[in-house]
Amino acid sequence: TINVFDKDSPETYFNSLGITDADDSDGFRLDKVTSIAISPDSAWLATTASDDSRIKVWDSTTGHLRATLKDSNETLKSLAVSSDGAWIAAVSGRAAQDTGTVMVWSAITWECAASTRTHGSLSHCSWTHEGRHIILNGAYGTYLFEFHSRDVRP
Predict the structure, then answer these.
(1) How do residues 85-126 score in pLDDT, each as one tens digit?
(2) How far apart (Å, rounded) are the C-alpha atoms in residues 48 and 55?
(3) 3-state percent breakdown (helix, strand, coil) of the chain, nearest 5
């Protein structure tokens, strides 16, 4: 099945999953979604919203909230899921402070596994296919970070 949704109305997608603003009572707004990343097996999807420092992880079958991930007070700009579905990367940035942050969460424990700051705000992130490197883009260009973890991958 292929569904096409209006880019100006993200709630159309979420509502087709049964997700509504009522599923989250702490201020998350579906009309403010800025980034979506879907697990490789399509079991869950992660979202960020403008002016929000949290990642919301939703079950793609039931539409229920699985987890809320937060490790900073910065607005998250972009999300990416590793090709094996074990990791979620997110970037943030504050142009006024000329800093950016990349954070990596385990998709098994939903805990933050790594975090580091960069010079210049960050706007986009992506995992390389093998899942060992994160590509970041921001105010001062493109960065490539190698990611190591002691966590067991699924």
Answers:
(1) 999 999 988 767 788 899 999 999 999 999 988 888 899 999
(2) 5
(3) 10, 45, 45
Element (H, E) at 39: none
pLDDT digits (tens, 9 = 90+) for 38-94: 999 989 989 887 677 889 898 888 778 899 998 777 788 899 999 999 999 999 887
Q: How far is CA 22 from the centre of its chain?
A: 21
Does an H or E element contain 101, and which?
Answer: strand 99-106
The whole-model pTM stands at 0.78
CA distances to 6, 14, 22, 143 from 31, in Å? 12, 10, 13, 31
Phi, psi of 13 (to 5 degrees): -65, -50
* Residue 136 near residue 119, CB atoms below 8 Å: no
* Helix count and strand count (H, E) for the chain: 1, 11
Tokens of 116: 């580091």
